[in-house]
Amino acid sequence: QVQLVESGGGLVQAGGSLRLSCAASGLTFGTYTMGWYRQAPGKERELVASIVSGGTTAYVDSVKGRFTISRDVAKNTLYLQMNSLTPEDTAVYYCRARSHMLGSTYWGQGTQVTVSS
Questions:
Q1: Which residue in 7, 37, 92, 114 has its CB near the most CB atoms, within 10 A?
Q2: What is the pLDDT of residue 7?
Q3: Do 30 and 73 form a contact (C-beta atoms < 8 A)?
Q4: Mean of the per-residue pLDDT values of the chain
Q5: Separation of first and last alpha carbons in the chain
C-alpha cells in the first residue's frame, strides 16, 4: 500500500522559511516523478515544483529562486525548502508521486502553509 505523508507546514511571517517533507512508503521512490502541488482557497491546484527520477527539477515561475525541491532516496523522502515566503504562498501543499511507466499516481493528504503579512 502506497502512502505519502506530508509534514512541516505551519504559520510563518512573511519573509520567513519553512521546510516541507513528504515521507513515501510502498513504492520504489527513486523511479517516480515527485512533485509538490498547492491549492489556495478558491483556486485550482497548481504544480509548484517537480523532480524526475534522473534528478532534474522544475519550478513554477512564482517560486523560482525561493523554493528548492530535493529528495533523499535512501530515506524515501521528498523535501521542499521554502524561503522568502509571501502571503501569496498560503495554501495547502500536497505531495504527488507519479510513474508514467506504471500509469500510477498517488497523493498525500496535504499540509497547510499560512504566511502572515
A1: 37
A2: 98
A3: yes
A4: 96
A5: 40
7 is written with which cell numbers? 509534514
Q: What are phi and psi of 28, to 5 degrees?
A: -85, 90
For residue 29, the SS3 value is helix
CA distance 56 to 50: 8
- The pLDDT assigned to 102 comes to 86
What is the per-residue pLDDT across 48-100, written as a single tens digit (0 to 9) for each?
999 999 999 999 999 999 999 999 999 999 999 999 999 999 999 999 999 98
Comparing CA positions, the residue from 85, 73, 84 lying closest to residue 22 is: 73
Between the alpha carbon of residue 77 and those of residues 61, 67, 72, the distances in Å are 24, 17, 5
**Cβ proximity of 71 and 16 under 8 Å:** no
What letter represents residue 36's amino acid? Answer: W
Phi, psi torsion values for 75, nearest 5 degrees: -100, 0
| CA 103/CA 8 separation, integer angstroms | 29
Q: How confident is the model at residue 30 (pLDDT cuts 50, 70, 90)?
A: confident
Query: What CA–CA distance (Å, rounded) separates 68 from 11?
Result: 19
